[in-house]
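Table S2 (text version). Query chain:
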Amino acid sequence: MSDIGNVNSFSLFISDLHLCHTRPAITAQFIAFLASTAKDAEALYILGDFFEYWAGDDDIADAHHQHIIGALKGLSSSGTKIFFMHGNRDFLIADIFAASAGLTLLPDPTLLEVYGKRILLSHGDTLCTDDLDYQAFRKQVRAPAWQKAFLDQPLATRKAQIEALRQRSESEKSYKNESIMDVNPDAVHTLLRDFDYPEILIHGHTHRPALHQLTYDGHTSERWVLGDWYEQGSCLRLDKTGCKNIAI
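Corresponding structure-token output:
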């Protein structure tokens, strides 16, 4: 458990930006966010699906990626700590990217002690336990042997495979019930119980931004769901008074 914070500090939480070269306006909005709102933050937490996809750290030479990496490094060098948690789209981000961008990789989930509160962070996909096909796929691609075999292939081959997987995923979503792609209440309960009921749980993944007030076993917790960046930016601010969504 990490502990940061002083009386005047605040931290920011974002997820599901899905940055890619075909959506330059969102990339520009993110770069502007780093230069404005984020520059005064003590810490910025990026909770997964930062990129539309990540084929491996050998792709950092891409011009679009370099633009983003440079902006992150600039923020980090100015004193804002940056933390990154893998999502389902960018779980292959590794140490080369982290060092280049000046950020720290976090395991999923991660518990913080900050501003007098216990904060639990997750990308959120592990909570969607009703989507059995996705959970089976997640288990497969998170296995070290699968990742090694995948990364041993040429970059162009990997990108082609990812594009095919993305198209299949979008097709499958069209006939999946919306409810199975949301979090399972029992999974949320189990996660909170495993970490002794922290006051706040923050996650993304579902693209359903909301605040959920929860009570389990006599304990109360807030579940904050982060919004995506498909149409506009979304950000959660945390300070000693609690959480609030802020405009970008």
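Notes on Table S2: Residues 200 and 222 are 5 Å apart (CA to CA). Residues 155-173 form the longest helix (19 residues).
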